Amino acid sequence: MAWTAGCFGFALAAGAQSGEHPFLESYDLTVQEGRVLVQWVMQGGATCDGSAVERSTDGERFETVHRLEGLCGDPAVPVPYSWADADPPELSTLHYRIAFAAEGRSSVKRVRFDQLNRSTHRLYPSPTAGPCSLLLRVPESARVDLRIFDAQGRPVMERRGAAGRWHAIDLTGHAAGLYTVVAVAEGQRFDARVVKE
Question: Quick one: how many helices (H) and strands (E) in the chain?
Fold first, then answer.
């Protein structure tokens, strides 16, 4: 079965991934440090003129986040493309798809982006009945010193040299009230508050 691409009239032989758009040989998502890399390969004979990368946080409402313009693609051989989403929404499940001008869209792929791009830190949930998570915008290799104080400023917990950006904090067994979390890493200080129910 052949597919004819838009204004160029290229003939495209069927050979895309099963259930995928005939213009695509492959496409994938990779979470990297602070970004999501979208990579795809256009089948030989397909034009990418007017193609776009679309993104959604709910899998329903998509917005165009990148557009390819002008002559691109090849009449005979597959052509790889990539685009880095340098500002994905923090702590979200992201859905991406490739739009082919008037020729339809790819399947939707999703990826979990558990990083911070704009915030320096997040502590959640708050209020909490016990465990919560502290996420810092530091390298995964960072060493973090954590101190937790109760509402009267008394230290209730301390952890030194903890690795990474994610830190579990369990207030189970502690009295209800407001707690302050102080984290120091990479020469930065992060202050956060959490309410223990």
Answer: 0, 16
